[in-house]
Design brief:
alpha+beta; 30 helices; elongated; disordered N terminus
Length: about 900
């Protein structure tokens, strides 16, 4: 290593060169000498060359004597000034220069080449170690290249892959053990009661065969001879013509069915009766009107109607998911609300709402542990999950993922059975299904309807399903049917076998080639003419039904002189003519006023709903649920954490892809920031003789570290928000709606998801910080920089949580995330406009300064700046706080800045929790 103590060089190390561009510059008149001088008369540029490495370092020397460690800007030794730290001032220095890249200046008069294993950026007063990232730091290195960053990441990827492979092998062994155990225990499966299904010798009135169940099921279900809930013998139609597929229930040729009692979970059976159910929207539109009927235990009920007939609205209103405006519900002949018994009601939505990257077993097991009584032992819950999978014919795909359009999984029919199983595993008393056959072929639809029939009969449940256009075979499995017309009014409700007879008595004739459900839909939509009433319109059917309910005689003899027909026509004539063909169009101003009034009514309803739920929560806080004591908050937290962990850590590919995003983001920022430095200000003595236009630049340090902080903030926010938005966005959000509607508390769920994300946040921050120092010549402690990045990732994930709960349209989440990153990092990052200007009283930004206080990037920029300049020894940094004050920072504010980032992240999470609970409330019921 070569060095210089600042004396005049004796050999070839120092040479004199005067560029012509300098010689041509005129200083002006000199009073002492009385002549005009050029720079070449006073100054010269000398070079110092290290013999070992060949590195050069130049300085501006005076042609007059100037002591080492000092500089003489006027060319006279009588006017010499001490050389500041970070500058180099050898003998005869006129202007101090920054210690050259690849060198370090331990004192202003000594220069040495940077040793191997260290790097020395411009202005270094000591060498900086290359640390442990396998960096390439040869002697004289100014900027290290830490290629070891990617070696470390590759090694981590290999270790993670091995861990995933080992886990997959353990899971495979566990599946084989479960399959072996299932084979060994298949014979003594606990079946407490069997009842044979025997074909009755007497044909039913409609020509279908009857199958009678033995009375033991009826007695266990709690039916009595006097009850209106069931007849003395539960009867069901034969499950279609043709062979039945065995879906996993213990079945011998379709003749013996297992009935496994649930001694630990007392069965609760309901008979549901509803009268005058009406639903009117705030804009005055009525979607349900005077719907009356009943749902009987042990019976399968179908709800049919054309588009816009309110089938799904009726199911939601009956279940208490939406507020009705009229009508009464009776449970076991007692006026009550079904919403009170939400934990005993299974509601199967039309869409297959479930986490598609989980297995069948994962989904059903989570549902069982969440919704079965907390006192039930875990092994018993797992046993019931296995029994249910056998019952639904899902054992063969128990460890297969659900899958979606991108990843192949189970079939559509199996997915529908999982959808039903999520509710059935909770052992409900009422099972409501919204178009369960939607999207299925006729064969799969028939299997599903057969399954629903078996569920109703074997478990004594109330089962009601909205079906749009079932096949004839599927339709014959329904015991009861409700036909709804446009506007949500009843056309018929009652036993399915009497529906055709009722319409035939009205005068409608079914073509022989048409199935009953197709014929019914044509009738309720007004496509079938009525011969005895040429002026017939579809809404007349509602009045016919009202007349029939009041006891009007309806005969199938529709000759012109028939008295019964005339009496029915007279009975409904007034009602039928009360439907004007065209409503009077309201004026534009009235419609606008109505729209404004609708908004206020919606807000009032929303506020009342929130107030009611809040009051109920406070009232029942700490009080055991009288309906069913499901797991409490702590147990729910653990269950949700386990499910969330499975979601995140199931796939090595997705796990490493996510880390790859953070690695690339850090590398890009490192590339953009490799030349961002802090170089101290020149001494005042030099700036005093500098031409006036250049003095502001002379007295201002070169400070590009805040720009690096902004770049880091942008990279972290772009990567962190996009990943964090997936925690509660997309399919996860609709699954949350379904779970919370089934009784899951929101707070434990949210906390569980946030806690499981903590390892992701830490790994993201560490990965980003590793690649950030790939080219960026940082001076502070890497651990301190990493702490800032991890805290900022925590805030970015939390922002993603909020965006995913506040933005309803999935396609808009990315756009909002981009706007968020730009707003908080660029506008509110404290760089432009400067933070000092924001906090200055009287500035236009001053009233809004709280926004900068709430900006996590603003505090991240401050923390990174404090950490980096703390490792530099420039005089203005070590001898005062002027530099910090100009930026609006505190010299000792690193810890407070990091803490502020974490607090801001917690605030965003609180906002996300509130948004998750208060947004889309109609979906959470």
């Amino acid at each position: 290593m070569a060095s210089s103590n600042g004396t005049r060089p004796a050999g070839s190390n120092a040479t004199t060169t005067v560029p012509s561009t300098i010689a041509d510059v005129i200083l002006g008149g000199d009073n002492n000498r009385g002549t005009n001088l050029t720079l070449a008369d006073l100054l010269e540029i000398r070079n110092y060359t290290d013999r070992a490495t060949g590195l050069n370092c130049s300085w501006i020397a005076s042609r007059h004597v100037c002591p080492e460690g000092r500089f003489c800007p006027t060319g006279s030794a009588d006017a010499s000034y001490p050389c500041p730290t970070g500058f180099w001032c050898p003998y005869d220095t006129a202007h101090p220069v920054y210690c050259c890249p690849g060198f370090y200046c331990a004192s202003p008069n000594r220069i040495a080449v940077c040793p191997e294993g260290s790097y020395c950026p411009r202005g270094s007063n000591r060498p900086f170690p290359c640390h442990f990232f396998l960096a390439q730091c040869k002697p004289g290195t100014a900027v290290p290249t830490r290629v070891g960053v990617f070696v470390v990441f590759g090694a981590f990827a290999v270790v993670a892959l091995l861990a995933f492979i080992l886990r997959a092998k353990r899971q495979k062994r566990a599946r084989l053990q479960r399959a072996l155990q299932l084979d060994l225990t298949a014979a003594p499966t606990p079946v407490l009661n069997f009842f044979p299904l025997s074909t009755s010798s007497d044909a039913a009135e409609d020509g279908s065969e009857r199958v009678s169940a033995a009375p033991n099921l009826r007695q266990r279900a709690g039916f009595s001879d006097e009850s209106t809930s069931a007849s003395t013998a539960i009867e069901l139609d034969t499950l279609g013509a043709g062979p039945r597929k065995n879906t996993g229930l213990l079945d011998t040729g379709g003749q013996v069915i297992a009935d496994v009692t649930r001694a630990e979970v007392p069965a609760v059976h309901f008979h549901v009766r509803f009268e005058g159910i009406t639903k009117t929207l705030n804009n005055g539109a009525t979607i349900l009107r005077d719907v009356s009927g009943e749902l009987r235990p042990g019976k399968l009920a179908g709800i049919l109607g054309g588009s816009g007939s309110g089938k799904s609205s009726f199911l939601n209103t009956l279940a208490g998911k939406t507020r009705r405006t009229g009508g009464t519900v009776y449970l076991n002949d007692v006026e009550d609300e079904m919403a009170r018994y939400a934990k005993l009601i299974g509601f199967v939505p039309q869409e297959d709402i479930m986490l598609r990257d989980l297995t069948v077993r994962d989904i059903l097991r989570h549902s069982a542990h969440m919704r079965l009584p907390a006192a039930l032992p875990t092994p018993e819950k797992d046993r019931r999950v296995k029994e249910l999978m056998a019952y639904l014919g899902l054992l063969g795909v128990a460890d297969s993922i659900i899958g979606d359009e991108r990843v192949r999984g189970i079939s559509g029919g199996q997915r529908k059975r999982v959808n039903i199983g999520m509710e059935l595993v909770a052992e409900p008393s009422i099972l409501l299904l919204d178009e369960p056959t939607s999207g299925l072929d006729s064969s799969t639809s028939l299997e599903l309807c057969s399954l629903l029939k078996r569920i109703a009969v074997e478990k004594g449940l109330v089962v009601a399903a909205v079906v749009h256009s079932p096949s004839q075979q599927c339709f014959e499995l329904f015991d009861d049917v409700t036909l709804l017309g446009t506007g949500g009014r009843v056309v018929y409700t009652g036993a399915r076998r009497y529906a055709l007879e009722y319409l035939r008595n009205l005068g409608f004739v079914k073509p022989a080639s048409q199935s009953e459900p197709e014929f019914f839909l044509d009738v309720v939509t007004g496509k079938v003419p009525l011969a005895w009433n040429p002026q017939f319109r579809a809404h007349d059917l509602f009045d016919y039904w009202d007349a029939f309910r009041r006891g009007a005689a309806i005969s199938d003899n529709h000759t012109p002189g028939n008295a019964s027909m005339r009496s029915v026509a007279a009975e409904i004539s007034t009602l039928a003519r009360s439907h004007p063909a065209n409503a009077k169009r309201r004026s534009l101003s009235n419609r606008l006023l109505d729209n404004v009034a609708d908004v206020f009514r919606d807000l009032a309803d929303y506020a009342r709903d929130v107030a009611d739920e809040t009051a109920h929560t406070l009232k029942t806080l700490g009080v055991p649920d009288p309906v069913r004591a499901t797991p409490g908050p702590a147990h729910t937290l653990l269950l949700c954490m386990r499910r969330a962990a499975v979601q995140i850590w199931r796939s090595w590919g997705s796990f490493m892809s996510e880390l790859g995003v953070h690695l690339a983001a850090g590398a890009f920022i490192s590339l953009a920031s490799q030349d961002n430095e802090y170089l101290g200000r020149y001494p005042d003595a030099l700036c005093d003789v500098t031409p006036f236009p250049m003095q502001p630049a002379c007295r201002t340090p070169l400070n590009l570290l805040p720009q690096t902080g902004v770049f880091v903030s942008l990279g972290v926010l772009f990567a962190g928000i996009s990943v964090g938005a997936s925690t509660f966005g997309g399919a996860e959000r609709v699954v949350y709606w379904r779970d919370v509607a089934a009784g899951m508390p929101t707070v434990p769920y949210f906390v569980a998801k946030a806690l499981v994300d903590v390892p992701r946040i830490v790994l993201a921050g560490v990965t980003f910080s590793l690649s950030l120092v790939f080219l960026w010549p940082y001076r502070g402690l890497w651990v301190s920089i990493c702490a800032v990045v991890v805290a900022l990732y925590f805030a970015a994930f939390s922002m993603g949580y909020f965006i995913s709960t506040a933005v309803h349209a999935p396609q808009a989440v990315g756009l909002v995330a981009t706007a968020f990153a730009l707003l908080w990092a660029l506008v509110l990052g404290g760089l432009v406009p400067p933070l000092g200007e924001v906090e200055r009283e009287g500035s236009g930004y001053y009233p809004f300064r709280f926004l900068w206080s709430l900006s996590a990037p603003r505090h991240a920029v401050e923390a990174l700046f404090i950490e980096e300049v703390g490792a530099r020894a420039w005089d203005e940094l070590t001898q005062g706080t002027a530099v910090y004050d100009a930026l609006g920072y505190r010299k000792d504010g690193y810890g407070a800045a990091v803490l502020n980032i974490v607090v801001i992240g917690l605030l965003w999470q609180t906002a996300a929790l509130v948004g998750l609970k208060l947004a889309n409330r109609e979906r959470q019921k």
